[in-house]
Amino acid sequence: MKNTDTAKSAAVLLIGNELLSGRTQDANLAHIATRLKEKGIRLMQARVIPDHPETIISVINELRQTHDYLFTTGGIGPTHDDITADCVAQAFGVDLPLHTEAKRLLLDYFQARDIEPNDDRMRMARIPEGATLIDNPVSIAPGFKMQNVFVMAGVPRIMQAMLDAVLPQLVSGAVQRSDTVVCDLGEGTVAAALRELQERFPAVDIGSYPGRVDNNSRLSLVITSTDDKLLEQVRVLIEQMVERLGGQVYSAPV
Amino acid sequence: MKNTDTAKSAAVLLIGNELLSGRTQDANLAHIATRLKEKGIRLMQARVIPDHPETIISVINELRQTHDYLFTTGGIGPTHDDITADCVAQAFGVDLPLHTEAKRLLLDYFQARDIEPNDDRMRMARIPEGATLIDNPVSIAPGFKMQNVFVMAGVPRIMQAMLDAVLPQLVSGAVQRSDTVVCDLGEGTVAAALRELQERFPAVDIGSYPGRVDNNSRLSLVITSTDDKLLEQVRVLIEQMVERLGGQVYSAPV
Question: What is the CATH number of the domain that holds B214?
Fold first, then answer.
């Protein structure tokens, strides 16, 4: 999984006390990971941190400097615990003024719905100086892109819509495709042969994931590569290995 | 959420390419978070990293030095991509010999099931010098505790059993309890009053989480504190605030 090709690297930063208290099961990381993979961008790490300004600022500054792209989720609503925009502005050392376009979007949206545009609601129009807006077709309050940092909502359907808006702006890389061989062998049975295959094909990443399907033990052998022919070659070799070791190959779950 | 009390701090490290490719939705963080909260231990951050030795070693060394406890999940099986024990040994600068008790446990388990104890299976008995075992009642191969680092399996039901074994060994702190007021107001409506309450009661953490129940917008206002009387006081004030602002309070989901 080392980023040895020319593809862009990315990190994800999930912000929110609720993720570290067990209250909320994050649903954003797997979605972002899947979409970045489709785009050929290498997700190298993710972090989960609380609504704590110093922590947010320092982690943003670390991750934006060590990755081509940084995606954050959470903390851009109107309440006191929504501090991501403030922290991004501080991380970049810029002001956080009301953004003309964001302000217009919010005022139009509130007027059409007879909602009072109070100070707290208008906080959502504060955008770091120099950032561009990320559309929010769900609930209008925009995310924003500040250099290589993409600041998105925490609510999954809003985050997903924002990511849809962002993806076309990113530089694609060679896409890593995956294929899975599912079998009924134990990990200890396949380990030696699998290790040999991994050593023989370093351009392919082979992962071994035990699990259960309909209460039967099933082992998923996942092959990942940017080279489709190699992927196919290794898949066939793994299927042959399973049969040689007395196992059965099952069709992979969709 | 700042750890300003005397409670122990913790970090969680989720290890595995599958978590960064979108293949696997992590289910371990929320579980560990919940159990640590019950124990009064403050979970300060989580990281998700790939099966990449240098990364694993450096992140383990960073997090074990900056937190009282570090919990890792993943990478302790028999296959080539299971490298967590090797990385922990390297992080601590110790050897990784076959552990007498772990070896006996595995041999007994394999013999009883007529499984061949091959080299790969016996890799699961390699434990960093100086570590103690963590019981695995599900599939026998143990986790281990190396100083303040707790190395657990990635498969959720095994990880959960290991955490059960580990929790009694940890130093409890003042437990932060949470209470939730669910209402039908928008975040922008409650924001000003909520901000005032948060400023008035700094010993309480107030979080605001919009969501939907049966296709209706619902706002969950979550109050967290180590002081039960204060928790109750702020809950009543938040309920009064909701009514004053024309909203309705709903019973919180269990």
Answer: 3.30.70.260
CATH of the domain at A215: 3.30.70.600
Query: Which chain B residues are closer than 8 Å to A192 by Cβ?
Result: 118-120
Residues A146 and A42 in one domain: yes
Radius of gyration of chain B (CA): 22
Nearest to B75 by CA among B185, B151, B188: B151
Cβ–Cβ contact A191 with B under 8 A? yes
Which two three-digit tokens encode residue A74? 């959470």
How far is B21 from A121, CA to CA, in rounded Å? 36
Residues A146, A150, A154, A159: is their CA dihedral positive or negative?
Answer: positive
In which domain, by residue range, is A223 found? Answer: 177-250
Short-list B77, B81, B99, CA closest to B159: B77
Amino acid identity of A71?
A: F
Q: Between helices A53-66 and A84-92, what is the axis angle to 10°?
A: 60
Last residue of a domain, one of A116, A135, A169: A169
Q: Which residues contact B121 (CB under 8 A, 6 or more apart)?
A: A188, A191, B78, B106, B110, B115
Cβ contacts (< 8 Å) between A50 and chain B: which residues?
A: 1, 44-45
- Say what the pTM is: 0.96
Rounded to whole angstroms, the Cα distance separating A134 from B204 reads: 33
Regarding whether B45 and B130 lie in a shared domain, the answer is: yes
**Distance, CA of B128 to CA of B96 (rounded, Å):** 4
Local confidence pLDDT in tens for the 254 residues of chain A:
444 578 999 999 999 999 999 999 999 999 999 999 999 999 999 999 999 999 999 999 999 999 999 999 999 999 999 999 999 999 999 999 999 999 999 999 999 999 999 999 999 999 999 999 999 999 999 999 999 999 999 999 999 999 999 999 999 999 999 999 999 999 999 999 999 999 999 999 999 999 888 888 999 999 999 999 999 999 999 999 999 999 999 976 64
Q: What is the DSSP letter of B123?
A: G
* Pairwise CA distance, residues B88 & B58, whole Å: 10
What is the tally of structural domains in chain B? 2
Nearest by CB to residue A120, choosing from B29, B46, B191, is B191
**Quick one: A113 and A160 in the same domain?**
yes
Helices marked H in B40-126 — which ranges? 53-66, 84-92, 100-112, 119-122
In this structure, is residue B2 part of a structural domain?
no
The answer to whether the CB of A62 falls within 8 A of the CB of A47 is: no
Q: Are the beta carbons of B192 and A119 separated by less than 8 Å?
A: yes
Specify whether A47 is located in the same domain as A116.
yes
Of B1, B33, B48, the CB nearest to A51: B1
Does ipTM exceed 0.90?
Answer: yes
Cβ contacts below 8 Å, chain A against chain B, sum to 198
Q: d(Cα B160, Cα B155) in Å, to the nearest integer?
A: 9
DSSP letters spanning A214-231: TTEEEEEEEEEES-HHHH
